[in-house]
Amino acid sequence: MKYKRILLKLSGESLMGEKSFGIEPERISQFANEIKDVALQGVEVAVVIGGGNIFRGIQAVEGGMDRVQGDYMGMLATVINSMALQSALEVIGVPTRLQSAIKMEQICEPFIRRRAIRHLEKGRVVIFGAGTGNPYFTTDTAATLRAIEIEADVILKGTRVDGIYTADPEKDPNAVKYETISFTEVYEKGLNVMDMTAFTLCNDNKLPIIVFDMNKKGNLNKLITGEKLGTLVEF
């Protein structure tokens, strides 16, 4: 295996599938099976999911809501998605633990770094919910922070596009995909990979990022075996 321990970052929107809101059972089941395939090969898997399919704090601000309140609501949305993924994994026999940055003793453990690492070492998939537990930080930042804390080898950012392009490939048919790109080039070209806080954390801690299409079956397995997919952001 090319990677021993990974942090998989999924957007909340990816769980919608063909729906315009919420969670599509077929899509979350697909993701669970993809994760199971790599976990059975001995890869230690941690996951962070966004909450945009349910609630976005920034949208609440646009509607006149207090930013802090909106962000906390968004964090709770990530916990709902995390619980759904946990259930989908356990239905197919994958042991999991859900840890939350906001205490919710009835449904998940609090985030404790040493405990999370121990779960991973025992072969459990660890899902991190509620972002960082702080307003003004995105789930990209939460994913980066958790990846650094658990000493992951790489962040795998699953999206609906197959990498980083010179422009938005859904809007510009002439957009060209990067196979690899440096952190410096991303800064200089102003490319949108992650929010700047998350991206800077990755750069400062020498943590590579791979942006890939999670919706295509088998891609996650191909990545962990070393096949070149998506776009690698390296130093």
Description of the molecule:
With 235 residues, the chain is of the alpha/beta class. It has one domain (5-234): Acetylglutamate kinase-like (Carbamate kinase, 3-Layer(aba) Sandwich). Helices cover 37% and strands 20% of the residues. It contains 8 helices and 11 strands. It has helices at residues 25-39, 57-62, 67-91, 113-121, 139-149, 183-189, 196-204, 219-224; strands at 5-10, 44-49, 96-100, 109-110, 125-129, 154-159, 164-165, 177-178, 180-182, 209-213, 231-234. The protein has a 9-stranded mixed sheet, with helices on both faces. A two-stranded antiparallel sheet has the order 7-8. Helix 1 links the parallel strand 1 (5-10) and strand 2 (44-49). The protein is globular. The model has no long low-confidence stretch (mean pLDDT 94).
